[in-house]
Amino acid sequence: MQIAIIGLPNSTKTTVFNALTRGSSETTAYSSGKFNMNTGTVTVPDLRVDRLTTMFKPRKTAYAQVMYADISGLDKGVGKGGLTGSLLNALSESDALLHVVRGFEDATVPHSEGSIDPKRDIEIVDIELLLSDLGIVEKRIDRLKSELDRDAKKPDRPVKETELALLQRVQAHLVAERPLRCMELTTAEMKMLRNFGLLTLKPMLVVLNVGDRLPPDALAPLAYYQHQKTTIVALQGRLEMELAQMSPEEAAEFMPEYGITELGLNRLISVSYDLLGLQSFFTVGEDEVRAWTIPVGATAVEAAGVIHSDLAKGFIRAEVVAYDALIAAGGMVAASQKGQVRLEGRDYVVQDGDIMNIRFNI
Ligand SMILES: Nc1nc2c(ncn2[C@@H]2O[C@H](COP(=O)(O)OP(=O)(O)OP(=O)(O)O)[C@@H](O)[C@H]2O)c(=O)[nH]1
Ligand SMILES: [Mg+2]
Questions:
Q1: How far is the CA of 31 from the centre of ligand 1 (A)?
Q2: Taking Cα atoms as reference points, which of 117, 1, 156 lies closest to residue 68?
Q3: Are 20 and 42 within 8 A, CB to CB?
């Protein structure tokens, strides 16, 4: 799972990336404008994993992880012929976009548009993404049309006609400047569009870097931005980066000084996890307590496959107990005595927080 960080030059993308990944990539007041990509893996904090660790005292604890990619070089104008090359590839291959917008004044940090205006900046990048999608869709429409003209009697004609009709709907949606994630699509249509790597179809999270002070109404100017599946989070970028680069003890000491009780980036990480439509199930034992990532709707056999392909191949049954039931019972044996541990088959739809033990045979 990869989330690509995008935004105008100098919009503080690398700062947010460093905050998320506890990294120390160079942040500069002058944008290089060149394409470059850095990736980092982020642990998803989860109180449930902490409580399971207390309960089972395993030798090892493993949290869910998400990869973030810091991408530079997305500038107004590069999209005149659509985003191209390595930049477009990197964006199309990601599962979601994290769009960083600058919302603070600082005379020492130049702004590519010459003034601070988050609403305008969001629109510049949004239009860029829309144009890129429109370019891809129109190229495909032209091609389908000429194929349909040429081979009037080919057996795959109905399939192509269906695709053409869908793409024309998609085109109209984009021309109306609406991102594709707001479009009503059936599962079959989603599948048809999946291979195009369309950018506005991806879930998007907007991060407003409010700078060194967090006003209580920080998000008010962006209230209009209510696209479906878009969440806006305010973050004190540089402060969060600096705290993330400290040891947890040091950070805990500094946080009261800045009047914050919880790292903003922890919330940001959880929000992006939800945004991706992801959820966790857990495996527990003396050896390891571990969170595994699956999409919402995944079945028991799919979940088994995330652990190891052999578990999916030789799947017999899953022993399942809900997180809350296990905590309430106080332990596995007690949960079992209360009849809370169920046996489920391969098609069981896994629920967020299920604790699973896969029985298999190979
Ligand atoms: N005052 C202030 N400055 C910040 C804050 N966050 C980032 N900056 C500064 O903004 C400048 C740009 O930050 P970067 O993170 O390098 O921006 P970027 O979007 O990665 O830039 P490019 O990759 O070059 O396009 C740097 O000089 C940062 O120190 C903040 O919260 N407050
Ligand atoms: Mg950068």
A1: 9
A2: 1
A3: yes
